[in-house]
């Protein structure tokens, strides 16, 4: 009589689940804790408010995900958002161009800024940290030059981006639609696959025939476009493009990507994770506001969350090596 060995069934791997879905678990726990702490948290108006607040950071972070997956960093996204919003408003309200061109103008400015940053790194051999830091300063300066340091009112198209479509805020619609597009490009197209390959091992990607320089420029262009869209959403909410718009947002965008499970060393990242990371930041800020916590302490808490997320990333990479 012959017997066939039956492999034992593997139980639920808690460690693997937490490694892949730690941000989601953290978000759920955070929401439950805030619901217990304040009944105002899980109300319809407050949840809509969180959705609107998260839209600008999440959309910006979608583009940042491409750069980080390719083992880069983009510190210029906040300034690019401001310049794009300013350009889209200036050329409509001051130069008198058709309002229908305002959004395309803003997106084109974002793409151009991303191309310059990517080209400096790809062809000028500058580290992405340095090239994007330089662009952060240059672009913010151009924003001040264009506006003369004063806010500029937005056109109807940009204002619509911050409004409502029926009962649903337009920023939330953009958040979902742009997230689906970003996820498709990252996971289902050559652009995304090449970004993962470059971020995972640049030299191996080059030897495999992948145009590494072109990939680097492309991910920065994508980051610039999403930053521009984020800036115009924010300007639409404020009904004006301000020279200080989105100041410091680049740090929140990077934090959202890292909290969502991406690795700063490249080769790892998910758009869904980035959205969850952005939600974590928005929920923390919203909850602390509801609990009347000082804005100064809020910065301390956010900084601690970022440090913990980066620490988990370091531990995860160590476990992979061993």
Automatic annotation (TrEMBL):
GO-annotated cellular components: plasma membrane
Give the subcellular location.
Cell membrane
The keyword Nuclease belongs to this UniProt entry's keyword annotation: no
Which InterPro entries does this chain map to? ABC_transp_permease
Q: How does it sit in the membrane?
A: Multi-pass membrane protein
The UniProt keyword set, sorted, is:
Cell inner membrane, Cell membrane, Membrane, Transmembrane, Transmembrane helix, Transport
Pfam families (alphabetical): BPD_transp_2 (PF02653)
Origin superkingdom: Bacteria
A GO molecular function term, named singly, is: transmembrane transporter activity
TM ranges: 16-38, 50-73, 103-122, 167-186, 215-235, 296-315
Quote the protein name from its UniProt record: Ribose ABC transporter permease
This protein's species is Glutamicibacter uratoxydans
Taxonomic path: Bacteria, Bacillati, Actinomycetota, Actinomycetes, Micrococcales
